[in-house]
Specification:
single chain, 255 residues, alpha/beta, Rossmann fold, 8 helices, 45% helix, globular
Length: 255
């Protein structure tokens, strides 16, 4: 028995045209899953899906662009996944927004509301669209990509951190609700990872030096170093884990 085998499973991964989401999609496909690639722009989604189909066989991946701020587009994505693969076994809520970099005193109401809506409410929408069929089958895995920001204070990404702390509680609440039906809900909490989303935190050499100087591994992470955790949580290997957050940060939070 391969504990990490996802053969026959179907996964929706939001924000999967690049960065951590793309790495998760690639590793889930490598583990045997069918995957739905989704982000706002059609072109990048289609490119990732085409590459996975070429590598793992036609029908491995579909591209369904969707804006997480639109409940209608999320439902269309879920419907397309059901049509293509017959079911949804795994949901990875990876897409997120952070339109503001600076102190909380300067954030506009619109920016604050967008962060909370896209990073919390959209996850709730997508999970509620997929959970009923998982609960009926008595099997399913939901992974929310949160952040160590939810554990720490920040003078520049405070609103984002608030949203990520809320994701931890969302996972705990849903784990309690869904547990009796063998549907598991967990969070991954990455530290600083080399993605376009986090570019403002690592592109500047001085900022990068400050961010890594006190971490045990003295470096930032790469997207593939987060992907394995998602495969673990979605597979039989993680079948007794729910309501938890898995911190993957190069040791940043131990200091």
């Amino acid at each position: 028995m391969n504990l990490f085998d996802l053969t026959g499973k179907s996964a929706i991964i939001t924000g999967s045209s690049r960065g951590i989401g793309k790495a998760i999609a690639e590793q889930m496909a490598a583990a045997g899953a069918h995957v739905t690639i989704s982000s706002r722009k059609p072109g990048p989604c289609q490119e990732v899906a085409a590459a996975l189909n070429e590598k793992h066989g036609e029908g491995t991946a579909i591209a369904v662009p969707a804006n997480i701020s639109s409940k209608e587009e999320l439902q269309r994505m879920v419907d397309a996944t059901n049509d293509a693969f017959g079911k949804v076994d795994i949901v990875v809520c990876n897409a997120a927004s952070n339109p503001y970099y600076g102190p909380m005193s300067g954030i506009s109401d619109d920016a604050f509301e967008k962060i909370l809506s896209n990073n919390i409410i959209s996850n709730h929408w997508l999970i509620q669209m997929c959970a009923p069929q998982m609960r009926e089958r008595k099997d399913g895995a939901i992974v929310i990509v949160s952040s160590i920001g939810g554990l720490r204070a920040s003078s520049v990404i405070g609103a984002y951190n608030i949203s990520k702390a809320a994701d931890f509680q969302l996972a705990r609440n849903l784990a309690e609700e869904f547990g009796k039906d063998n549907v598991r809900v967990n969070c991954i909490a990455p530290g600083l990872v080399r993605t376009d989303f986090a570019r403002a935190l690592w592109e500047n050499p001085e900022t990068l030096k400050r961010a890594t100087s006190t971490t045990p591994l003295r470096r930032i992470g790469e997207p593939i170093e987060i992907a394995g955790a998602a495969v673990y949580l979605a597979s039989s290997a993680g079948s007794f884990m729910t309501g938890q957050m898995m911190v993957i940060d190069g040791g940043a939070t131990v200091n």
